Amino acid sequence: MRKVLAIATILGCIFIAPALSTAADAPPHKVTVSGDPCTVPLAKKVGDAFSKKTGIEVVFSSGKCRSGVAEVLGGNADIGLATFNFDKDTLDKSLKDFVVGKAPIVMVVNKSNKVGNLSLADLKGILAGKIRNWKEVGGKDMEIKNVLLQPCVTERMAYQAEHYGHDINRLKPEKPGNPVTGTNVLVEQDEAAIGMQLYGHESNDVKVLTIDGNLPDEKTFPGKYSFYEDYNLVTKGEPAGAVKEYLDFFRGDEGQRILASMKHIPLKKL
Questions:
Q1: For residue 144, which of 155, 130, 154, 156 has the smallest C-alpha distance?
Q2: Complete domains list, the chain, with CATH
Q3: How far is CA 41 from the centre of its chain?
Q4: Cα–Cα distance measured from residue 270 to residue 77, given in angstroms and rounded to the nearest whole number
Q5: Longest dimension (CA), the chain
């Protein structure tokens, strides 16, 4: 009888063991993140580090400005990304917004342009169309060409600095494409161009202007340099599971170090 029980016990272990192994090897839940060309590069760097540490896959998609928020609202993504200073009262009540840092906006020009600094008054004059030639701000005699390809960025600058003149000289690409890359390319190719870019997204072949002698960093934020947007992660309802893990990682030490490496302002400074 004892021999029969022993055999039964062994057989039970043989049949139970595969079930335990399958549960242990089950793939973790993946996190889907949707944003735009201004937001995805940073979130993907954080996602790569998060996946390496946890084994949880993070999948990214990119669309138009603030499209990530719409994707979350429609149930098509776990997290929506946006660089925008949201009025919380305008967000759908089902959404939760988590600000994880500040995204600075900078003005970029062609490397051949000898102008390296603009006063705030000069910048406002250029945006309003009152200053139309680089010679008016210490540059060459050439008409200023404005690159305004990134809606989220241009809206923020219009709100914080100056509304754009209706008849300013605008420089546009031949075909629509990635607005972040397009801004860099247009400025690289035209000595008279001036564009708006999120800091950390400028190419090596453009020059970032100082405003009143300042660039955005932890020392000049927020009193000496004014142009920033919130970097938002938006979820539908309270985040849980792998989504919460990714959000916590983004707000934790390692995620914030990656954010700072992209020239954004980390949470500890907000």
A1: 130
A2: 31-103+230-269 (3.40.190.10), 104-211 (3.40.190.10)
A3: 7
A4: 27
A5: 104
- Interval 175-229: pLDDT, tens: 999 999 999 999 999 999 999 999 999 999 999 999 999 999 999 999 999 999 9
Task: Give the span between the Cα atoms of 171 and 24, in whole angstroms.
Answer: 56
223-247 pLDDT per residue, tens: 999 999 999 999 999 999 999 999 9
Half-sphere exposure of 45 (CA within 13 A, CB side): 13
The residue type at 269: K
Contact 47, 100 (CB under 8 A): no
Cα 187 to chain centroid, rounded: 21
Burial (CB < 10 A; 0-12, 13-18, 19+), residue 143, is: exposed
* Token digits of residue 175: 């075909």
Tokens 């979820």: give the residue. Answer: 235
Q: H or E element: which one contains 58?
A: strand 58-62
Cis peptide before 18 (omega within 30 of 0): no
Rounded Cα distance, 102 and 98, in Å: 12
Interatomic CA distance for residues 100 and 229, integer angstroms: 11
